[in-house]
Design a protein that fits this description.
By secondary structure, the protein is mainly alpha-helical. It contains 15 helices and no strands. The protein has a single domain (33-424), classed as Ammonium transporter fold (Orthogonal Bundle), CATH 1.10.3430.10. It is globular. It starts with a helix and ends in a 9-residue tail after the last helix.
């Protein structure tokens, strides 16, 4: 037993000595440049694969929210868009964002290549991977909003444009040291740069392609729920839990460092606030739907969680726990009434992506100065307007051109049969007589 204890304790003691930890407390904790490089790289890689796991959450959420005749196509879209985003972000996206001149607007159209060095503080490859999964998340937001009536390959084409060009441009404006960073805009992990970008692109697409057949009545009302019933609420719920888990990587990894005790404490604080904001969004949506509409709407609770998480993403470090709950709670309320607004405008967003990502993302970005004294409301407003107007207008033009050329929408016959039959020929759920 003594020999075993020595075998275990020796490497642990060596690690502690290597890290330079002292009994004087974390204020004096230091590590060598190489050890800092290793820890920072591990943060990117571990948080990166948590964010990648969000792709499974999006696939489950969307598969559960669409009708049972459109599930296989959702699966195809989600694994396809993730693959496309990864290729495009390597081909042009990364350097469009990070090759931008200081205070500039656009980087260079060249593939990413690894140039890792210890003095950069982390492996270049780990940073590429971490940023790539953010890019793929942006595209995932568009998928569900336009479900059940868009053709598969035109969607793939738009996914390539969004991941390879549009998202990297606005990403570079802030995280690449571009003009938004120059004016003091603050978006810690992407309430606007990721979520509003995806939401604005989804809004443009939903407006261009129009609602599903029979979704709205001629008098302006919403059609009865049965023909458009979600295929699996349990699947949606599991998807949201996976997204919630992935969000710890999304926000925690955006600290961008784990080489000091202060960084470790900051990541822990971010985890707490991220969790609490999601919880606030859930309970706010539950309360509002119960008091306002007479029933506790589980779909709005689930989307309220996402709205709360999106809202805290712009600044998950500085708020107090109570402030995080309130910020997330307002995000949940925005999701509920944002959904009603889309209904009144007869904009068909199948999964509720636009209220949860676009509307809640705007709120989360604008409220940053309330908890971060270094942020200004004017810079936040300029950033929100610039990103959303740019993405919406360019996406609207691209969707319009695609509609007039390659075509976006399935035929009425194909839509009636279901996208599984018309687009993949693979039926997700067998229908028994």
């Amino acid at each position: 037993m003594t020999k075993m204890i020595k075998l275990i304790s020796a490497p642990l003691l060596s690690l502690i000595m290597l890290m330079g930890l002292t009994s004087a407390g974390h204020a004096e904790t230091t590590v060598s440049a190489e050890v800092g490089f290793i820890f920072n790289t591990l943060l990117f890689l571990i948080c990166g694969f948590l964010v990648m796991f969000m792709a499974a959450g999006f696939a489950m959420l969307e598969s559960g929210m669409v009708t049972s005749k459109s599930v296989s196509v959702i699966c195809a879209k989600n694994i396809g868009l993730f693959s496309i985003a990864g290729i495009m972000f390597w081909l042009v996206g990364y350097n469009l964002a990070y090759g931008i001149p200081e205070g500039g607007y656009i980087g260079s159209f060249i593939p990413w290549s690894d140039s890792s060095a210890i003095d950069t503080g982390y492996s270049d490859g780990s940073d590429w991977y971490f940023q790539m999964v953010f890019c793929a998340t942006t595209v995932s937001i568009v998928s569900g909003a336009m479900a059940e009536r868009i053709k598969l390959w035109p969607f793939f084409l738009f996914a390539a444009i969004l991941s390879g060009i549009l998202y990297p441009i606005v990403m570079g404006w802030q995280w690449g040291g571009g003009w938004l960073a120059e004016i003091g805009f603050s978006d810690f992990a992407g309430s606007t740069l990721v979520h509003s970008t995806g939401g604005a692109a989804a809004l443009a697409g939903a407006m261009i392609i129009g609602p599903r057949l029979g979704r709205f009545t001629k008098s302006g009302g919403v059609a009865p729920i049965k023909p458009f019933a979600a295929s699996s609420i349990p699947l949606v719920t599991i998807g949201v839990f996976i997204l919630w888990l992935g969000w710890f990587g999304f926000n925690g990894g955006s600290q961008l460092a784990m080489g000091t005790a202060d960084d470790a404490i900051a990541v822990s604080t971010i985890f707490i606030n991220t969790f609490l904001a999601g919880a606030g969004g859930v309970m706010a949506a539950a309360t509002v739907t119960r008091l306002g509409f007479g029933k506790t709407d589980v779909v709005q609770m689930l989307n309220g969680c996402i709205g709360g998480l999106v809202a805290i993403t712009a600044e998950p470090l500085m708020p107090s726990p109570l402030a995080a709950i309130l910020i997330g709670g307002v995000g949940g309320v925005i999701v509920v009434y944002g959904t009603k607004l889309l209904f009144s405008l007869q904009i068909d967003d199948v999964v509720g992506a636009i209220p949860a990502h676009l509307f809640a993302g705007i709120w989360g970005t604008l409220i940053v100065p309330a908890t971060n004294p270094d942020a200004s409301f004017s810079a936040q407003l300029i950033g929100v307007l610039a990103v959303n107007i740019f993405i919406f207008i360019v996406a609207y033009i691209i969707w319009s051109i695609m509609k007039a050329t390659v075509g976006l929408r399935l035929s009425k016959e194909a839509e009636t049969k279901g996208t599984d039959v018309s687009e993949t020929g693979v039926i997700a759920y067998a229908i028994r007589d």
